[in-house]
Each structure stands twice: as structure tokens, then as C-alpha cells.
Amino acid sequence: MTTIKKVNCPSCSKELEWKESNEYRPFCSERCKLVDFGDWAMERHSIPGEEIYPVDSQDQDQ
User: Fold this and answer.
1) pLDDT of residue 58
2) Model-wide pTM > 0.85
3) φ, ψ for residue 41 (rounded to 5)?
4) How sure is the predictor about 55, in pLDDT bands with cuts at 50, 70 and 90?
5) Per-residue DSSP letter, 43
6) What's the pLDDT score for residue 10?
7) How far is the C-alpha of 15 from the C-alpha of 37, rounded, in Å?
8) Which class does domain 1-45 fall in?
9) Averaged pLDDT of the chain
């Protein structure tokens, strides 16, 4: 017997089954997937760390 793992959608928290037939996993729908993508694109989400390209204070004055 195979048990299907249940997870919550990261966008709306709806419970869904984690299975290969869900093309949007870990999201419950295309909408939730696009909402999350938009949040990353608008920089509402970020991964902590040092800046890759530090801003030089002299460059800001120009």
C-alpha cells in the first residue's frame, strides 16, 4: 500500500496530495504558482546573503 503525502500549498495553504500528476506542485494551481513567481520577480522574497555587486557610495553620487 502506497500512502500519498499531503502538503500545503506555499501560496494559499490549501492541502494537496504530493504526486507526479500534479503539474504545479508544490503549488495547488497555476494561479498560486504565478502569484509566487510574481512575488519573487517583485523582490518580495529574497535569499539572505551578501550582495553580489556591492553598491559603491561614489557611484551613487553621480
Assistant:
1) 64
2) no
3) -65, -35
4) confident
5) T
6) 94
7) 20
8) alpha beta
9) 87
Query: What pairs with residue 15 in β-bridges?
Result: 8
Question: Which residue in the block uniquely carries the three cell numbers 502538503?
Answer: 7
* Pair 26, 5: CB distance under 8 Å: no
Question: How many CA atoms lie less than 13 Å away from 15 in the CB half-sphere?
Answer: 3
**DSSP classification of residue 29:** S
Cell of 15: 492541502
The residue type found at 53 is Y
* Buried-state track 7-45, b at ≥16 Cβ within 10 A, e below 16: eebebeeeebeeeeeeeeeebbbeebbeebeeeeeeeee
Between 57 and 45, name the one with better pLDDT.
Answer: 45
Residue with cell 561614489: 58
How many angstroms separate the CA atoms of 16 and 4, rounded? 10
